[in-house]
Amino acid sequence: MGADALFATTWVHAFEEDGPEGAVYRPEGGSLRLSRRPRARLSFSPGGRAVVALGGPDDRLHEVEARWRDDAGEITVTTEAADAPARTLRVRLQPSGALIVKR
After folding, report:
1. Got the DSSP string for 25-44?
2. What is the pLDDT of residue 99?
3. Which of 19, 76, 93, 97 is deepest in the core (most CB within 10 A)?
4. 18: which residues sit within 8 A by CB, 6+ positions away?
5. How confident is the model at residue 83 (pLDDT cuts 50, 70, 90)?
6. Cα–Cα distances in Å, from 96 out to 5, 38, 43?
7. Which residues, 6+ apart, have CB-to-CB distance to 64 below 8 Å?
8. Stretch 15-25: mean pLDDT, rounded?
9. Region 19-36: what's the mean pLDDT?
């Protein structure tokens, strides 16, 4: 799977697949089961823009603007919310077509 695949979809947290390596994200529209809790989402745009969507206290997804950069094959995502501390995620695109967000 090439780097263009990173931009081709919104990535959805498949928490039932999480393991010791980290949180597993799959392309939106795949065969994920319905969930009572909201599934976090990541989306990437060429040029370094990203959006992180997390479940809020009211169970709705709340989007936070972020920036991403490639650090020798590992993607570093840093949120840019003015009203919250910056959060950094370390992401790897797997040959299987999944993203792993390291713990």
Report:
1. EEETTSSPPP-SSPPPEEEE
2. 93
3. 93
4. 24
5. confident
6. 12, 24, 18
7. 51, 52, 53, 54, 79, 80, 81, 84, 87
8. 94
9. 86
Q: Tell me the β-bridge partners of 44.
A: 50
Q: In the structure, what pLDDT confidence band is assigned to residue 1 with cuts at 50, 70 and 90?
A: very low
3 state DSSP class of 46: coil
Tally of domains in the chain: 1
CA distance 30 to 90: 23
Rounded mean pLDDT, 68-75: 90
Torsions phi, psi of 61, nearest 5?
A: -75, 135
Q: Which residues contact 33 (CB under 8 A, 6 or more apart)?
A: 16
- 23 and 99 Cβ atoms separated by less than 8 Å: no
Range of the domain at 9: 4-102
Report whether 68 contacts 52 (CB < 8 A): no
- pLDDT, average across residues 39-58: 92
